[in-house]
Amino acid sequence: MVGQRRTSVQKPWRGKLPMTLALSVWLTGCSTSTALCDAFGPSKRATIAVPPDTPVEKVFICVDQASINSPDRARYADTGHAIRDVHAGVLETQQYGASNVAGFRLRADVSQQTPATLTLSLRGAGAYCADLGVDKEMDRLKTEIASCLQR
Questions:
Q1: What is the rounded CA–CA span in Å between residue 108 and residue 32?
Q2: How many CB atoms lie within 10 A of CB 150?
Q3: 42-150 — its CATH code?
Q4: Phi first, then psi: what are they for 47, rounded to 5°?
Q5: Phi and psi dihedrals of 108, rounded to 5?
Q6: Mean pLDDT value across residues 33-60
Q7: What stretch of H or E contains 17?
């Protein structure tokens, strides 16, 4: 190939495509991270045996006392209840079902079967879905609630 010139073809999109893809992933990541955090974020479930003939209201009082006495009380997302249904046996904090909420959120279900059980579900995401210590808080809740139910 003597005497022939090689010419290169310019590809103006070559450097822009990776940058465009990275920018679009970054922008959509902000919206999908909320859904992913709600679905796969820090959470823990536990079951506690309820002594026979214990009224549901007493179980709820024990749950309230344990959550109020938490050394990490400031990490709870709210102090009120969205659901407190003694007949259905359901207690749920205001922000439990909400998405993109930082702090601990708690749901308690008392079974109507014999022997009765209390099922706790704790969510605890902070900024950027950081774990606020859900395992440690659930262990503390289980210990305090079980102790309260034995009194």
A1: 28
A2: 9
A3: 3.30.530.20
A4: -125, 135
A5: -125, 130
A6: 89
A7: helix 16-40
| AA letter at 90 | V
Distance in angstroms (rounded) separating the CA atoms of residues 101 and 3: 70
Distance CA 19, CA 80 (A): 46
Strongest mean pLDDT among 81-85, 92-96, 102-106, 138-142? 138-142
Most confident of the following: 10-14, 22-26, 60-64, 100-104:
60-64
For the chain, what's the residue count?
A: 151
pLDDT for residue 70: 77
Strand 90-93, strand 81-85: pairing: antiparallel
Q: Between the CA atoms of 55, 57, 61 and 62, what dihedral angle is there, to the nearest 10 degrees?
A: 30
Q: Write down the residue that tokens 């046996």 correspond to.
A: 89
What is the C-alpha to C-alpha distance for residues 74 and 82, in angstroms, rounded to an integer?
A: 19
Bridge partners for 47 per DSSP: 119
What span, in angstroms and rounded, lies between the C-alpha atoms of 117 and 91?
A: 14
